Amino acid sequence: MVMHLPKIPLNNWVDMAVEWLQTNLKPLFALITAIIEPTVQFFQTIFDTAPPLVVALVIAFLAFLASRLSIALFTFLGLLLIDNLGYWSESAETIALVLTATIISIVIGIPMGIWSARSQRVQNVLNPILDFMQTMPAFVYLIPAVFFFSLGSVPGVIASVIFSMPPTIRLTNLGIRQVAEDLIEAADAFGSSPRQKLIKVQLPLARPTILAGVNQTIMLSLSMVVISSMIGAGGLGAIVLQSISRLEVGKGFEGGVAIVIIAIILDRITQNMGKQKSATRVSQNQNFLGRWGKPITALVAVAVLVSFGLYKQAVPGSGGKKITLAYVNWESEVASTNVIKKVLENEGYKVELKLVEAGPMWSGVAAGNADAMVAAWLPLTHKDFYKQYKDQIDNLGPNLKGTRIGLAVPKYVKANTIDDLKKDKSQFDNEIIGIDSGAGIMQATEKALKSYDLGMKLVEGSDAAMTATLQKAINAKKPIVVTGWVPHWMFKQYDLKFLKDPKKVYGGTEQINTMASKDLKGKDPKAHKILDQFHWAVGDMQQVMLKIHKGQKPEKAAAEWVKENPEKVKQWTK
């Protein structure tokens, strides 16, 4: 008889710790948010307000001062290419997030590295913590970041700092410890204090190693910022996430090229800053600009960008009231969110969209980081989220009725009920093609697998991956079973049928509800009223979805529908 040790309830302990921190450290989290959010907005305003050509010239000039002409030329042409591809605003947001995360990492990391270099005991304590920080999968950092800071730029920066700070600490420690002993002895012989020895001997000699750590921190920050798009951090990561979810290879490649350009620019500049310059080159630079020429010129260049940002912030009436809408990357929600966004913009609002996963979408509205969402599938799909957050949100009721979820197959498949799948599972390769794991329909399908004893595998993916697999199977007249829901454009384009569900695992008809933050009604009654009155039909949504599927941009498809349906829109805005 094999004895099994009881499972250590580590997950319960972690959940309890997170709950305690959420309850008792709210003021600290609010303070951190109050520091990080304006910093990110400031950097983004600087890069996104001035004309792209001006920004490209200034950054290229700074690259020339920090490195050499070839890098400055690459910087200028690379930034112009990003603007030409149409990703300037997203790139500005990404750079703002990276700069904020890097500054915080340096402010914390370098002092920690110095402390570690001066105390072996501190180093012994820090090393396992840094090992843990560097080996933990990057996605894991998104979970506590969402719990403590909801969604948006702040949790993205926090996750990036935790993930990217270790190289700065390690290499600062290493650089100081590698300073030659005879130089330390000489400093001691001249009567240097520990502070003088650190500032005038150890840090200058350790500078290349420290900057190598900063370089690694910047690169890791950039990679984490891209991943953080899953919790609404935005930027180029959101472009990549959309492309993955919708299988838009070309758009994903463009977003990837923009990320690579930014990475190369940041990498080359910081690498060259860390290199020790020869005496000849130092002399040439001093002859060219004088001893203080470079710092003064760099400050002037930065001042040009800052002045644009400050002017933009000072100009009144630069936009209407701001409304933030969260949504998941399902084609139904892309359609509805962009339609209500267009309606609100026509009413004078400045609308920001945050593309996130289902969990962060609900927590973001509950915490007030997003004003509303029009993507709550009830009573089954988002049942668990609604149960968790129903007391923290304002349920404005359904914006679309008559939805349905279940398992769908092409009409040429003989199976008519879920039970029929068991008769010949091999024709479906023993698989049910699903979407993202956080969706309620996936949880319902896992329940169906057990209830009907199907013995099949549920394949996780995305909406786009599921429909691409479906299209491939239909073209080959091959049997396939997928997770399906109405409204969805695939029911307009293909001859599909839902499998009957006698055990009612998938429930009956569903509806999509609008959820608003608790404070929206008091903060902006007009926006709250428009969202409350937003309601359309399955056919309306599928019109927009089909246009998006056929390649039209969501913004354009939504704008066309709003223009073609003035009477319906009038009912929402009256």
TrEMBL record:
Residues 91-270 form the ABC transmembrane type-1 domain. Keywords: Cell membrane, Membrane, Transmembrane, Transmembrane helix, Transport. Its main location: membrane. SUPFAM superfamilies: MetI-like (SSF161098), Periplasmic binding protein-like II (SSF53850). GO terms for cellular component: ATP-binding cassette (ABC) transporter complex. GO terms for molecular function: amine transmembrane transporter activity; carnitine transmembrane transporter activity. Pfam families: BPD_transp_1, OpuAC. GO terms for biological process: choline transport; glycine betaine transport. The keyword Cell membrane applies. It is found in: Cell membrane; Membrane. It is a multi-pass membrane protein. InterPro entries: ABC_Gly_betaine_transp_sub-bd, MetI-like, MetI-like_sf. The chain crosses the membrane at residues 53-82, 94-118, 138-163, 217-241, 253-271, 292-311. Belongs to the binding-protein-dependent transport system permease family. In the N-terminal section; belongs to the binding-protein-dependent transport system permease family. This is Glycine betaine/proline transport system substrate-binding protein. It comes from Marininema mesophilum.
